[in-house]
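2024-03-11 09:14:02 INFO worker-7 job=invfold-0412 stage=load source=structure_tokens
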């Protein structure tokens, strides 16, 4: 299960992270176990859990302007070290205790930040292009999708991991001023949904490059619903 969240943490205060599953109408969620994150000053932007004893939450620290990664082992949350070059993390997707992905950004001229957890440590996975990666959705060890935005021309960006490396996948950028992708959900390698925002009236749909075999990225005009 994967849930995006924005939680504010203040130094010296307790933050409760709750797990909600199958609540009846009108019921109030209760904290999952102790659920208290370490007392730090920062924000959490995303959380992903593949079991009751394996969950990840990511975000950034306010004062240090550095990322924060917390892991839930079924009893408590604890911080986990990541590569020092990252500024902040926006998305996370957990597949198993030995396989998780997190994405974010550093300075705008830097490549997207894509991190992989192998069960013992987080390492950087090279990604082509520039700008911040905003979200990640991992369906399997060989099917991971990342979305974000190009910093210079404000165009949408997407990457696909096939088990051997991250490759850019063409995506439409229908708006003339700003095109951003901030969320992604992959049902399968050929059925992926991404959302974001645009600014100014929509222009012609556009995409360039070649998608991986069997992958097609097609725009859906505003107002349309999935069929």
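2024-03-11 09:14:09 INFO worker-7 stage=emit residues=227
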């Amino acid at each position: 299960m994967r849930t995006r969240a924005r939680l504010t943490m203040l130094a010296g205060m307790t933050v409760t992270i709750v797990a909600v599953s199958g609540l009846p109408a009108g019921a109030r969620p209760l904290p999952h176990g102790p659920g208290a994150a370490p007392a730090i000053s920062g924000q959490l932007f995303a959380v992903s859990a593949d079991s009751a004893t394996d969950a990840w939450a990511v975000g950034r620290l306010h004062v240090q302007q550095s990322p924060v990664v917390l892991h839930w082992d079924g009893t408590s949350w604890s911080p986990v070290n990541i590569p020092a070059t990252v500024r902040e993390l926006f998305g996370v997707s957990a597949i198993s205790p030995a396989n998780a992905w997190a994405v974010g950004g550093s300075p705008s001229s830097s490549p997207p930040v894509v991190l992989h957890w192998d069960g013992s440590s987080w390492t950087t996975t090279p990604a082509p292009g520039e700008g911040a990666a905003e979200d990640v959705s991992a369906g399997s060890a060989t099917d991971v999708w990342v979305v974000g935005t190009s910093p210079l021309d404000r165009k949408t960006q997407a990457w696909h991991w096939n088990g051997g490396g991250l490759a850019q996948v063409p995506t439409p950028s229908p708006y003339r001023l700003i095109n951003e992708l901030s969320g992604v959900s992959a049902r399968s390698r050929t059925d992926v949904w991404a959302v974001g925002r645009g600014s100014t009236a929509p222009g012609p749909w556009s995409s360039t490059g070649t998608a991986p075999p069997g992958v097609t990225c097609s725009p859906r005009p505003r107002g349309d619903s999935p069929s």
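2024-03-11 09:14:09 INFO worker-7 stage=report msg="The radius of gyration is 18 Å."
2024-03-11 09:14:10 INFO worker-7 job finished
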